[in-house]
Amino acid sequence: MQIEELFSQALGIEYPWKIESLHFNSDKKRLDIKVSFERGALFSYKDERTGTEKQYKAYDTVDKIWRHLNFFEHECYLSVRTPRIKPEQGGTKMIFPPWHGVVGGFTLLFEALLIEMCRHTPIHQVAKIMGLSDRKLWHMIECYVKKSLNDADHSSVSCLGLDETSRLRGHDYITLFVDLMTKKTIHVSEGKNHETVHDFVECFEDSKGDRTRVREVSCDMSPAFIKGVKTVFPQASITFDRFHIMKLVNEAVDSVRRAEAKMQPALKGARFALLKNETKLTSQQKKKRAYISQLNLKTSRALRLKETFQAIYQADTGVQFTTLLKEWYFWATHAQLEPFKKLAQTIKKHWDGIVRWKESQINNGILEGLNSVIQAAKRKARGYGEKHFKTMAYFLTGKLNFKTYNPHLPTLFA
Fold this sequence. Notes:
alpha/beta; 5-stranded mixed sheet
């Protein structure tokens, strides 16, 4: 078996394509494979306007180069004599080989490798390993993401969650819109005000989404989000996210602790013992928490208020949930703890959306998980630039269907 035939089989090169020669440069650690096509070969071309498909002989050729998977540690390039044809409709059309990737200059297999690497490794590091520029790699990811978003179908979406995340601490917010049934990000908007919801619905309807079909929305108590949701989705019920409510409860506990810690040595170093969920406490934190619970402190009362509020979500029925919440509200307003008195007023103001949870049973726990994925990737990459932050949010949490454009990738990429 000749070396050209061996590489043809390894690369999956079939008629009318053929390998003409190979050149290996050990000094440059590079393998160049020259590819051409059989003389007189016919190439199919489908006219997009008429839908008719015909075969044509090559009118002329253009030399193109594709980066392929490495040959061991050596870079591999396919230098291809690429045909152009002249359809009856006029002009010239280039006939790309079947290994042509989404991005010019990469084969599909090479793109599949790069995308898989980018799932787990910072973009800059992948570029450095593969000898590419960051710009080229970002361009490839953006092309795949844009293609997937353009082909998205949101016609079945009926349950949404929205939450903001930041590119930098306290700056440059984006808002994630998630289909809570499929657990994937379907839209990313700049900012975190009511306009972000209007921005979302335009793109949503462009992708076959139906705003009247959306019946449930989970979000935090942001007035901007509430305003946007009520305006854009008037038929949807709002469920206020349990995780954000518990965040407010924890903030109230911590506010009481900080004020009292100045006079109570027992509260020194107790912050995490009081704020973490009991199942995530270390043995030392459990002891600290149990000790504080037995003391006659304002912080002890605050801790009991927190634990009682958490227990409300274990109610068996909606009636029981509402009854327990009313009892907690009365306790919080009479506990002589100002942070909890303010929290109780906030809960009263958003009562319907909190009680709604018992019926809808939806929350933004999924969003919190997706948000953490983005933040973890951002930390590994030492932050993404503003231009790429949205792209990476889609790339990591959008379950985008890249297989449509590259058969070597999973059906859902997330």
